[in-house]
Amino acid sequence: MNQSETSKLSNLYWILSGFVIGNAMVAELLGMKIFSLGKLFNISPIQVSAPFSLTIDFNMSVGILIWPLVFIISDLINEYFGRKGVRKISFFTAGIILFGFIFIFIGTALPGADFWLELNNQDPSGKPFDVNFAYQTIFMQSGGIIIGSLTAFLFSQLIDAYAFQYLKKITGHKKLWLRATGSTIISQLFDSFIILFIAFYILGNWTFSQVLAVGVVQYLYKIILAIVLTPLIYLAHNYIDRYLDDEHPTEQLVYNPKDLSEINIASKN
Questions:
Q1: Which domain, by its residues, includes 36?
Q2: Above 90 in pLDDT, residue 110?
């Protein structure tokens, strides 16, 4: 493999990885807010009775809105670079999130400047407002999200990578939709509940029924979005193939990120 091809693969890996890291970090910072689908569409609260005396009211974390994109891009990394590629970026992303949490903890502990406190001492209606307390409350709640999400992210990413490759052994290089959606269905079952259980039940003040109710809604959302965005995976796959300018359409390049000089060629059957 020549230097140009190796450079393209290297660029592809880090571009996809950059999206994973960026989306994951944004989701972590926004994830502490729970929003209502009912209020979003200006309708009365939606409540559905479920087994075990559970009431599902269609509330979700804001961070969950873009989280499925992380797993879609991870599937693309898995398709071109294998499980080693996914594991590498998963641990790197976890490190970046942990780095962010450390500075969130430091930032909330720093004393606020007097002029900043005075400039922000009222809300829009003129009522007294403690901006430093609000800052600490929001970001330290994000700290709980980060701890729960780190655990859920690594666990579900590794499961997703394994499930994707397992399905790929069965389907070969056909039926990308099956291994992408199938691996997401399996991995997100764990991700959707682990993060809520740790962040809001163990480290927060939610009841277990609230964890289950929100977890079910978030899991259904991820699965529906994974199915809806399936055409996007094929579009990205075709674009990447053109970018790599593969002269051998019957072969699949699999990049080993541990060594840029080693590219394995696996024949499509």
A1: 3-267
A2: yes
